[in-house]
């Protein structure tokens, strides 16, 4: 436990470590450095510079922001490695990049060009509808999405060193992000109050490895860093994710599909830093110009990226 009462998971990584890998706890520790930060989707070196200047703790290189993936359709893939290299040269903060679910060759390519993290992401078109990447086969740390505690712990068992709740990327609508964060946090609260004897059945019910469920119970939180993603469009949305207990946020479309990306990016960083101070939140939310338009999710025709994997 650290001074601020936060459970430090770095030293606990060894308990999650399969025999095969000697690096898992190092990857988990590396992701800790991102806590309290904002990770911004960027598609060009210029956008990466805007993100860094605004105070992003990392950027996520992808071929199109999720709102454009939705609007344009087609198969969304890993972005051009040449472009990712240019983005790496443009900034000093860590650069993440997305690989399709199950596409371990895209991940090999991203590792070979030196990205700092790979996001095995449902925002891209899945390559394998049964299997995720065996992330223990890589030196580079992975982040993966989840909608609930079981899904988070399954990804961690496969080697994810960081988790993000999925939300619904590219909608500018926070409702699914709230649902997913509340689901994870609610299950952790229920788990903490459970008798140890009940954990076997609970682990079976959420289809998660017993040892990771038990570790989560003991820590009172996910055993790796947990960010929110998908639908964050305003400083208030970002602060909401933090007040619900997340360690940081990913923002994609919400910044670069808004009227003034640089100003909105700065405001969202401030909101994450001062997430429990409504006066600062009021100040940074003022005069930001147009937010992204967004999509109403009660429309059944809207594709759910979050349901693309279990
Ligand atoms: O997939 C992501 C995180 O890995 C995206 O960065 C995130 O979900 C973006 O969503 P949005 O465009 O709604 O902000």
Automatic annotation (TrEMBL):
<dbReference type="GO" id="GO:0008615">
    <property type="term" value="P:pyridoxine biosynthetic process"/>
</dbReference>
<keyword id="KW-0663">Pyridoxal phosphate</keyword>
<dbReference type="GO" id="GO:0016843">
    <property type="term" value="F:amine-lyase activity"/>
</dbReference>
<keyword id="KW-0456">Lyase</keyword>
<dbReference type="Pfam" id="PF01680">
    <property type="entry name" value="SOR_SNZ"/>
</dbReference>
<dbReference type="GO" id="GO:0005829">
    <property type="term" value="C:cytosol"/>
</dbReference>
<dbReference type="GO" id="GO:0046982">
    <property type="term" value="F:protein heterodimerization activity"/>
</dbReference>
<comment type="function">
    <text>Catalyzes the formation of pyridoxal 5'-phosphate from ribose 5-phosphate (RBP), glyceraldehyde 3-phosphate (G3P) and ammonia. The ammonia is provided by PDX2. Can also use ribulose 5-phosphate and dihydroxyacetone phosphate as substrates, resulting from enzyme-catalyzed isomerization of RBP and G3P, respectively. Also plays an indirect role in resistance to singlet oxygen-generating photosensitizers.</text>
</comment>
<dbReference type="InterPro" id="IPR033755">
    <property type="entry name" value="PdxS/SNZ_N"/>
</dbReference>
<dbReference type="InterPro" id="IPR001852">
    <property type="entry name" value="PdxS/SNZ"/>
</dbReference>
<feature type="domain" description="PdxS/SNZ N-terminal">
    <location>
        <begin position="24"/>
        <end position="229"/>
    </location>
</feature>
<dbReference type="GO" id="GO:0006520">
    <property type="term" value="P:amino acid metabolic process"/>
</dbReference>
<dbReference type="GO" id="GO:0042823">
    <property type="term" value="P:pyridoxal phosphate biosynthetic process"/>
</dbReference>
<comment type="similarity">
    <text>Belongs to the PdxS/SNZ family.</text>
</comment>
<protein>
    <recommendedName>
        <fullName>PdxS/SNZ N-terminal domain-containing protein</fullName>
    </recommendedName>
</protein>
